[in-house]
Design brief:
With about 250 residues, this protein is an alpha/beta fold. The chain has one domain: Hotdog Thioesterase (Thiol Ester Dehydrase, Chain A, Roll), CATH 3.10.129. It has helices at about 1-10, 30, 45-55, 65-75, 105-110, 120-140, 235-249, and strands at about 20-25, 45, 95-100, 150-165, 175-185, 185-200, 200-215. It has a 7-stranded mixed sheet. α3 crosses α6 (about 120-140). The longest helix is centred in the middle third of the chain and has 19 residues, at about 120-140. The two termini are about 20 Å apart. About 30% of the residues are buried. Keywords: Hydrolase, Repeat, Serine esterase, Transit peptide. GO terms for molecular function: carboxylic ester hydrolase activity; fatty acyl-CoA hydrolase activity. Belongs to the acyl coenzyme A hydrolase family. This is Acyl-coenzyme A thioesterase 9, mitochondrial isoform X1.
Length: about 250
Amino acid sequence: MRRAALRLCALGKGLFTPGRGLTQGSQDSRKQGIFHIHETCSPIHVNHVRDKLREIVGASTNWRDHVKAMEERKLLHSFLATSQKGLPPRRMKDSYVEVLLPLGSEPELREKYLTVQNTVRFGRILEDLDSLGVLICYMHTKIHSAKMSPLSIVTALVDKIDMCKKSLSPEQDIKFSGHVSWVGKTSMEVKMQMFQLHGDEFCPVLEATFVMVARDAENKGPAFINLLIPESPEEEELFRQGECMLICL
């Protein structure tokens, strides 16, 4: 009942389509084949993720500017590839992103994530995961010659969310990380992880798998995306898992 309630809560907020399920308890990352990419990069503040997304798609919180940006997006069709062969292949680490949610060090931000029972609002965490998944896909499909992306990235499916801990501390910083782990012609699988600070170390809390699809600039049809090239046996296993997941759906 608890799993179903969590999924219905997320769906009711219009966050994304629920997938195969949400599990809870101790998770063995070796059995799941979870791959940790260790890249030297500075984490993005959680408040800046949506700012980056607005820059990428040209959206604005001001209605007049937003309408103008949407008109400009119609001109981006020339940047769309006619086939995958016309796009440069990417590596998993090319889309790797880290995001910091400083619950412990920023009390004002913490207030936005607390319930009346002084617990962390899981719905806000799901929103952050969804935004991160979209940003990761834009990193994978980035076109350096275009100021804005000609793609519209849409969350198609939340395949699985595995929770390693039953509760989150409202007074400790959280870090998210993730990357593209599989691609088709117009769809991508994104694997994300969440950690919480305990002492001097970030410890695993949650692992999530999302499936995203690429649409054209006006969200009227599918769009081709860059191929993904696995660079190690671990990455090949992740890629294989992504293929198996879509077959099982």
